[in-house]
């Protein structure tokens, strides 16, 4: 029976959206392998009281380690916990979210266990007793189907791909103790921007701007569009404007930024360099607004508007508000 272990990411003791997505992905894989799903996570005291909901997404057991030191992400402790759990049961795969925490923890686990790691996975299946992972290659121009010579297979799943689906299981919460060893590093503080917004990897709608915005002061126009689109929307940016200091790096979408897979992606004033396409090509629907009809972004767009973005975007925001008011 191929059981699957899932790292459920938390922040300040609260489950993040990627945790539910990872458990959903783990459940998909477990059903293919004929096994069940367990989740593990760390957090400050009281976390265990808030995580039984993972059972609604298919987790049979939820292992929780609590300590005041786990208020922030604790990489060494998470790795020890993962190792301990793998020693307790025979797992065929370990699933991590391809989030900031997951991208840090998954390679550590791969190095410690001497296993390969399939990253940014967008589909999961099975071939016999082993997992098969599908992941993009060459900036999304090709898909690779990856098998694993040794188990457990280590897999990180791209955010916003495996939408959380409720398939209730026991969700039995079990507190575990992680051996207290000196950490090689610790988080001393977290700095956030003034604007409270969804992370681009978690938002269902991303509105990204590029050099065509001409000036950072013009970003208020994109903020107005995000506001019109609602709470599921957030801002993104191309590398060019981040390098210019117009926008924070946390908003950068692309090969050297963040990879996103929202339901709706707006590329506004973005030409569509291959590095940017690598970060958003898997969006469900792509809308491009650019005055250059030959811009590469139109080759991947589902809908394209050739025109002056300073006229199109305000009109679009106004129309979205009008339609929303009528619904």
Q: How would you explain this protein's 3D organization?
A:
With 327 residues, the protein is an alpha/beta fold. It has seven helices and 17 strands. The strands form four sheets. A seven-stranded parallel β-sheet has the order 7-11-6-1-4-5-12, sandwiched between helices. The protein has a five-stranded parallel β-sheet with strand order 14-13-15-16-17.
Quick tags:
327 residues, 7 helices, Rossmann fold, alpha/beta, 7-stranded parallel β-sheet, 5-stranded parallel β-sheet, 26% helix
Give, in order, the helices and strands.
EEEHEEHEHEEEEEEEHEHEHEEH
Count of extended strands: 17
Question: Helicity level, as a percent range?
Answer: 25-40%
- Rg computed from alpha carbons, rounded to a whole number of angstroms: 21 Å
Question: Which regions contain 5 or more consecutive residues with pLDDT less than 50?
Answer: none
Describe the SSE topology.
Layout (H helix, E strand, L loop, with lengths): L2 E5 L2 E2 L2 E2 L1 H17 L3 E7 L15 E8 L8 H14 L2 E7 L2 H14 L3 E5 L1 E5 L2 E8 L4 E5 L6 E5 L14 E4 L29 E5 L9 H11 L3 E5 L1 H5 L20 E5 L5 H7 L4 E6 L12 E4 L2 H18 L1
Parallel strand pairs: 1-4, 1-6, 4-5, 5-12, 6-11, 7-11, 13-14, 13-15, 15-16, 16-17
Antiparallel strand pairs: 2-3, 8-9, 9-10
């Amino acid at each position: 029976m191929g059981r699957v272990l899932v790292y459920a990411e938390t922040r300040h003791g609260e489950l993040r959206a990627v945790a539910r997505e990872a458990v959903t992905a783990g459940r998909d894989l477990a059903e293919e392998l004929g096994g069940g799903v367990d989740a593990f996570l760390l957090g400050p005291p009281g976390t265990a009281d808030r995580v039984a909901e993972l059972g609604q997404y298919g987790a049979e057991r939820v292992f929780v380690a609590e300590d005041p030191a786990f208020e922030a992400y604790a990489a060494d402790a998470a790795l020890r916990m993962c190792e301990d759990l793998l020693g307790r049961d025979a797992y065929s795969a370990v699933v991590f979210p391809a989030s900031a925490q997951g991208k840090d923890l998954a390679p550590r686990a791969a190095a410690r266990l001497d296993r390969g790691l399939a990253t940014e996975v967008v589909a999961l299946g099975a071939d016999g007793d082993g997992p098969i992972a599908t992941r993009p290659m060459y900036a999304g121009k090709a898909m690779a189907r990856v098998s694993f010579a040794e188990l457990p297979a280590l897999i990180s799943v791209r955010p916003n791909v495996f939408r959380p689906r409720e398939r209730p299981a026991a969700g039995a919460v079990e507190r575990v103790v992680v051996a207290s060893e000196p950490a090689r590093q610790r988080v001393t503080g977290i700095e956030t921007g003034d604007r409270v917004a969804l992370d681009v990897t978690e938002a269902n709608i991303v509105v990204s701007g590029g050099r065509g915005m001409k000036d950072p002061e013009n970003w208020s126009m994109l903020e107005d569009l995000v506001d019109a689109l609602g709470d599921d929307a957030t801002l993104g940016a191309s590398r060019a404007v981040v390098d210019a200091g117009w926008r924070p790096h946390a908003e950068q979408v692309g090969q050297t930024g963040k990879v996103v897979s929202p339901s709706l992606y707006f590329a506004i004033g973005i030409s569509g360099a291959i590095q940017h396409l690598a970060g958003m090509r898997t969006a469900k629907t792509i809308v491009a607004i650019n005055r250059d009809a030959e811009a590469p972004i139109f080759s991947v767009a589902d809908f394209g508007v050739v025109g002056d973005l300073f006229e199109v975007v305000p009109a679009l925001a106004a129309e979205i508000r009008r339609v929303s008011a009528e619904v």
